[in-house]
Amino acid sequence: MTAQIDKVLEARPIPGAPFGWQVDVDLTQPLDEAQKQALREVWRRDGLILFRGQDLTMDQQLDACEIFGPVLRGMLDNYLVSNTRKEGLLGKAELLFHNDIPFVPAPYLGGSLHALEVSEDAAPTRFASAFKAWERLPEATRACVESANALHVQGQLLARRTRLSDLSPGDTCAVHAVKGRQVGTGRPYVFVNAEMTACLAHLPHEESEALLEELFACLYDASQVYEHHWRKGDLVIWDNLAVQHARSALGEGERTLQRVTIAEFGYWQQVPSALQSFDELQQM
After folding, report:
1. What is the dihedral of CA 191, 276, 271, 159, to 10 degrees?
2. Sheet containing 255-262, strands listed edge to edge, beginning at the edge strand earlier in sequence
3. What distances in angstroms separate CA 29 from CA 35, 54, 56, 93, one per listed residue?
4. Could you tell me the pLDDT band of residue 163, with boundaries at 50, 70 and 90?
5. Beta strands, E only, the chain
6. 159 pLDDT band (50/70/90 cuts)?
7. What is the pTM of this model?
8. Per residue in 130-139, pLDDT tens?
9. In a domain, 277, yes or no
10. What's the rounded Cα separation, in Å, for the pair 1 and 41?
11. Does a structural domain hold residue 280?
């Protein structure tokens, strides 16, 4: 398969990154089916792919993301992440490592960010590979979580992990297997995160906390985290189930990124009562 990819694409590991691939292709131009299939194969390797020097409208970004899975074309699931534009969402808050919306039955399949305007001091986005984390887990730890489930809850406090004691009546939550598997390959990954995993469902509180801390230590080992420093025109597309992302609190550096979601079902479809909180996201 590698030889076939090399015939139609120029793909290489992201320089200096512990995982992820960079592909040189102009996404404003039509791609044939061989190129699209090669892109999907590259993306499956690590669940993260970087394109430099793009200049995409929202519709063009939607079309590019549709190569990798179904996209949601409504405005509530595709928007600007910005600390300078009034219409931007989640523009200033610190974000711990997380998968997007793990607290619903069908979390997003993937996400993408396209840098429209970024200054040199714009906050980077950090990515952690849950594929790599599973590979690094000790055998005894793998055995402990092989058939385990975790409870994921709607994030309440962005500065720390939301726990059961933080929840209010009506808050959304979902149970998912700790050991996830990539569709199409069966490759395992760790599905817990530092922001919204409240507990492991099969263990007493103290044991759950201890095991989660062990999983987090493996997931977020500094040597295994890819810190992406944005350039104007960058497009990063990642597997939301097997790759987590995070961001430190923003300073004054301009940072406007165009967000597109890869998913079968949107957040607002699954949690219609949350529509009232849409405006609140603009203040974060």
Report:
1. 10
2. 11-13, 21-23, 48-51, 235-239, 110-118, 255-262, 79-82
3. 12, 11, 10, 35
4. confident
5. 11-13, 21-23, 48-51, 79-82, 95-98, 110-118, 125-129, 149-153, 173-177, 179-181, 188-190, 197-200, 225-228, 235-239, 243-247, 255-262
6. confident
7. 0.92
8. 999 999 999 9
9. no
10. 8
11. no
Q: How far apart are CA 137 and CA 212, in angstroms?
A: 12
Within-domain flag for 98: yes
Residues ≥6 apart with Cβ < 8 Å to 155: 98, 103, 162, 195, 196
pLDDT band at 148 (very low <50, low <70, confident <90, very high): very high
Kindly tell me if the per-residue pLDDT of 226 is higher than 70: yes
Report the number of distinct structural domains present in the chain: 1
Secondary structure (3-state) at 253: coil
DSSP at 67:
T
The CATH number given to whatever domain includes residue 153 is: 3.60.130.10
Instruction: Give residue 45's domain range.
Output: 7-265
Kindly state the average pLDDT of the residues 37-59. 97
- Dist. CA 64–CA 242, nearest whole Å: 20
Please report which residue ranges of the chain form alpha helices under DSSP H.
2-8, 33-46, 58-65, 130-136, 139-145, 205-219, 267-270, 278-281
On whether residue 114 sits in a domain, the answer given is yes
Residue 81: CB partners within 8 Å, gap ≥ 6? 88, 89, 90, 91, 113, 255, 256, 257, 258, 259
Where does residue 69 fall: left (phi above 0), alpha (psi -120 to 50 degrees), or beta otherwise? left
**Number of H-type helices and E-type strands within the chain:** 8, 16
What integer best gives the mean pLDDT of the chain? 91
User: Rounded to whole angstroms, how far apart are CA atoms 176 and 185?
Assistant: 19
| Tokens encoding 83 | 């600390």
